[in-house]
Design brief:
Elements: H1 16-26, H2 57-73, H3 79-87, H4 110-122, H5 126-136, H6 145-151, H7 158-165, H8 172-179, H9 184-197, H10 200-209, H11 221-228, H12 230-235, H13 241-256, H14 268-279, H15 286-301, H16 313-325, H17 328-338, H18 343-358, E1 377-382, E2 393-398, E3 401-402, H19 403-407, H20 416-419, E4 430-436, H21 441-444, E5 446-454, E6 457-464, E7 476-479, H22 480-492, H23 499-513, H24 516-519, E8 524-529, E9 537-544, E10 562-569, H25 575-588, E11 596-599, H26 602-607
Antiparallel strand pairs: 1-2, 2-3, 4-5, 5-6, 6-7, 8-9, 9-10, 10-11
């Protein structure tokens, strides 16, 4: 077998390494535009994914093993032939990763490593390029770093390139280099690898730059906090401003994760208390104030309130954050952000102002209710920072304690539209789902309570989680009059909404009241919503010709259907006017040409005369 730089039939196409090198020369200190797209092999990776939805990693392993066996066991087979065999594999690129090759007999041989280098350097297609990187995983040396990190600049190769770099001795600098030039998916993998490295180079970078591109630090905020010893850093006397900013973002991200990583962070109380001290000592800016506002709310109504605080420390931490947020310096910084030419900055400043104004008086946790002896209900509607992914939450508090956070850690409370109406108490009683696991109730459960009116009292009882033997919450008894007032006030309060959310609510109401708006176009309404981190748009979801389950038993199983999603841009003008114009537009215009298919099947779409979207055979971010 020859390991020379073979060319043959590959000369007609630029290698992925050369493609990445050329683009990198144009933007040496930044990520490649669009992750390096278009790639030289894009034409070969369009259309439905190989293997369809049933594709498995086991199938990828078997296919790769067969090709590699034929190459290494077949004397005289060229690298050009191996490249073409790998390129022709009926395997999606996302399934080619180092663990797929674990245990294959040829990996320990030197020809396997040399083959990996050749494929990584000369591959014109991502399948052989990924296979080359997989052959290098655990076998690459420092001399291979320039090749691997350059390939890692391409979005389709970045995560596997990180896996190759991580075990190379002294690779922390290469991981930093790649992280600073990568978009979210590769950046997330690099951050995770640096957290494991325990290298001073990696720790120093994480402490200053882990949240530069992604305030959630790639979903690894807890690992970053542990890797940099965040509480110790904040308690030290010489913490730099940038480290305080990163600390606030990490704590905020941990508080908003579905599982609330704060509850798993042993030093969470120390870190939160120290952040409140440090944040007051650095110049206020929008990012740090946003973190302070979000953490103050979580200390009041979220998982941070349920941490094992020493007596008085939670209250003192909240009071420090309140003084910072209501200071003249903070008001000046937010006023400046509100005048920014950047609409995202302006909207984030508006969110911070509202969040600060909505902060309640610092509650203490009494041993028993005061006054008439009944339990006391409060309802907080909490809107997440627009810079972070997340949904609006309805957080019930009883006697100052957050109910959902106390009893359920596997998901966030429901949005007001889906929960507040269910809190109304009736004599018949009803079971209400307050929260659901992030992965669905069928997987990890949900939090239920039965609400019933008993004369002049409203009772919350019968707590349950289908995924847990017991829910550690006692029954609550509220004075019915006060209870009804609290719930009615929460239902009527839309002051927390931003324009797009109001437009979505009004459009949703119009479609519910007048189904003919969509029926005229052979469509049926699904949902209309506005996401908290995409404040300039709403999503109108609908079915064509109708929802699969809506027809009952009289509908044939093979009757075609698709689900479509229409994105409508919203501005900061009057929300009611925008909603009215959108509804009027629907009376005379078919929304289907303006929407994209998000559900159904290629066969159904073809039968309905609609184009099925192309799927990139690639890592998606």
């Amino acid at each position: 077998m020859s390991l020379a730089r073979e060319r043959g039939a590959l000369d007609h196409r630029l290698s992925l390494f050369d493609h990445a090198s050329c683009l990198h020369a144009l933007t040496p200190d930044a990520p490649l535009p669009n992750g390096g797209r278009p790639y030289p092999d894009d034409a070969d990776h369009r259309g439905p994914r190989p293997g369809g939805g049933s594709f498995s990693v086991e199938r990828a392993r078997a296919a790769l093993a067969a090709v590699l066996r034929a190459h290494f066991d077949g004397p005289g087979r060229s690298l050009d032939e191996l490249h073409e065999d790998l390129r022709a594999l009926d395997v999606p690129a996302w399934a080619i990763r180092p663990d797929v090759l674990d245990g294959l007999p040829w990996l320990a041989t030197e020809p396997a490593r040399e083959t990996g280098v050749w494929l990584a350097r000369h591959a014109r297609d991502r399948r052989p390029a990924l296979t080359g990187l997989c052959l290098l995983a655990g076998r690459a040396g420092p001399e291979d770093v320039p090749l691997v990190r350059t390939l890692g600049l391409l979005r389709c190769l970045g995560p596997v390139a990180v896996a190759v770099l991580e075990p190379i001795p002294g690779s922390a600098a290469a991981l930093v280099w790649l992280a600073e030039r990568s978009a979210l998916l590769t950046l997330s993998r690099a951050i995770e690898a640096m957290c494991r490295a325990e290298d001073p180079v990696a720790v120093a970078w994480l402490l200053r730059h882990a949240t530069d591109q992604d305030p959630t630090a790639g979903g690894h905020a807890l690992r970053v906090a542990q890797a940099v010893r965040l509480a110790d850093v904040l308690e030290e006397g010489e913490t730099v401003d940038q480290a305080v900013l990163v600390a606030g973002r990490l704590l905020q991200a941990m508080a908003w994760e579905d599982f609330s990583a704060l509850r798993d962070y042993d030093d969470a109380c120390r870190a939160l208390a120290a952040f409140a001290v440090r944040a007051a000592a650095v110049p206020p800016e929008l990012d740090s104030l946003a973190s302070a506002a979000a953490l103050a709310e979580d200390l009041t109504s979220g998982h941070a309130a349920c941490l094992p605080w020493r007596p008085g420390v939670r209250e003192a931490t909240l009071e420090r954050l309140r003084r910072l947020l209501t200071s003249a310096r903070a008001a000046e910084a937010l006023a400046g952000a509100a005048r920014s030419p950047d609409p995202v900055t302006r909207r984030r400043a508006a969110w911070a102002r509202r969040a600060i104004a909505a902060l309640p008086v610092v509650p203490r946790f009494p041993s028993w209710p005061a006054g008439d002896g009944g339990d006391r209900l409060a309802v907080h509607v909490v809107v997440p920072d627009p810079a972070l992914p997340g949904r609006v939450e309805t957080r019930p508090l009883v006697n100052g304690r957050p109910v959902v956070a106390r009893a359920f850690r596997k998901g966030r409370p429901y949005e007001p539209e889906h929960l507040l109406g269910g809190l109304e108490a009736t004599e018949e009683g009803r079971e209400v789902r307050l929260a659901e696991a992030y992965c669905t109730e069928g997987c990890c459960g949900a939090l239920y309570v039965t609400i019933v009116r008993d004369g002049d009292t409203v009772v919350w009882r019968g707590w349950r989680d289908p995924d847990s033997l017991a829910v550690e919450l006692e029954p609550f008894r509220f004075a019915a009059g006060s209870y009804d007032e609290v719930v009615a006030r929460a239902v009527d309060d839309h002051g927390w909404e931003w324009p797009a959310r109001t437009v979505a609510r009004e459009v949703r109401r119009s479609l519910r009241e007048d189904p003919g708006l969509l029926a005229a176009w052979e469509c049926e309404a699904g949902g209309t919503y506005a996401e908290a981190d995409r404040r300039d748009e709403i999503q109108v979801v609908f079915w064509h010709p109708r929802e699969p389950s809506s027809a009952g038993g009289d509908r044939p199983d093979d009757e075609p259907w698709v689900q479509l999603q229409w994105t409508v841009l919203i501005d900061d003008t009057d929300a009611g006017d925008q909603a009215a114009r959108l509804v009027d537009w629907l009376r005379g215009n078919d929304p289907r040409p303006h929407a994209r298919i998000v559900g159904g099947s290629p066969e159904f779409a073809e039968r309905l005369g609609l184009p099925w979207p192309d799927w990139d055979d690639d890592y998606e971010e």
